[in-house]
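Need the bound structure for iron/sulfur cluster, inputs here:
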Amino acid sequence: MSYVITIDNDKCNGDGECVDVCPTEVYELQDGKAVAVNEDECLGCESCIEVCEQDAITIEEQ
Ligand code: SF4
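Answer from helper R.:
Posting the output first, comments after.
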């Protein structure tokens, strides 16, 4: 199973909650915004969606 991660840059405030919570280090902050640099490692656990108060993250199964 692989996942497609979409981050709404207009909503992301760069608080880094997704960076901290992700068990497989999918995210990195770049210029104050979250970027899914290791999308291939995503397990689909949706922890990042739960902690994102801005609702900036969408994950779809591929
Ligand atoms: S769904 Fe889980 S594994 Fe995938 S990016 Fe979010 S926290 Fe990381």
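Comments: The mean pLDDT is 98. The pocket of iron/sulfur cluster is lined by residues 5, 21-24, 26, 42-48, 59 (CB under 6 Å).
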